[in-house]
Amino acid sequence: MEWTTHGERRVYSNHWLNLDVVDVQVPDGQRWEHHVVRLRHLAVGAVVNDRREVLMLWRHRFITDVWAWELPMGLIEDGETPEAAAAREVEEETGWRPGPMKPLIYAEPANGITDSQHHVFRADTATHIGPPTEQNESDRVEWVPLASVRGMIDRREIVSGASLVGLLYLLMDERNR
Fold this sequence. Notes:
This protein is of the alpha+beta class. The protein has helices spanning 82-94, 146-154, 161-175; strands at 4-13, 17-25, 31-39, 42-47, 53-61, 66-70, 73-75, 96-98, 102-107, 118-123, 126-128, 140-145. The chain folds into two domains: 4-39, no CATH class; 42-175, Alpha-Beta Complex (Nucleoside Triphosphate Pyrophosphohydrolase). Helix content is 21%, strand content 42%. The strands form four sheets. A four-stranded mixed beta sheet has the order 7-4-10-9. Strands 1-2-3 form a three-stranded antiparallel beta sheet, with no helix packed on it. Strands 6-5-12 form a three-stranded antiparallel beta sheet. Strand 2 (17-25) and strand 3 (31-39) form a beta hairpin. Helix 2 (146-154) packs across helix 3.
């Protein structure tokens, strides 16, 4: 069943997000204002080496006050392709320049409240070019064995939605190779 949109208005805006109020009508005729968070889109890089390890960051997220492992990721800049953004983020956050980036999976993690698009790419090679240039992203950058990822997820050592989507698909992809 499709909902009908009768209009929307922006109630807040900044560089990171916009908050809109949308006048919607559901199929049974009810009509109300629905809040929608419009986020900039995200690019994620899953880099795997020939030892079947994935490049990850150990970082703190202040919003949830959680330390966990994540894939390198960041916002897609204006005029930038998702693929280029994923490669840029890997390099800035890890100091590794990824090889060719191939689409791995696309997701919309909370499409009932936000229009955030997550573009996840895979690279099977990387060259170390130096320390990360982005100094505020993580405490550690490590190659994590793919065989360890499932246990890390079970222990809540990986909780980021974008990382989970990418890693779970990466694990499925690996099984099919």
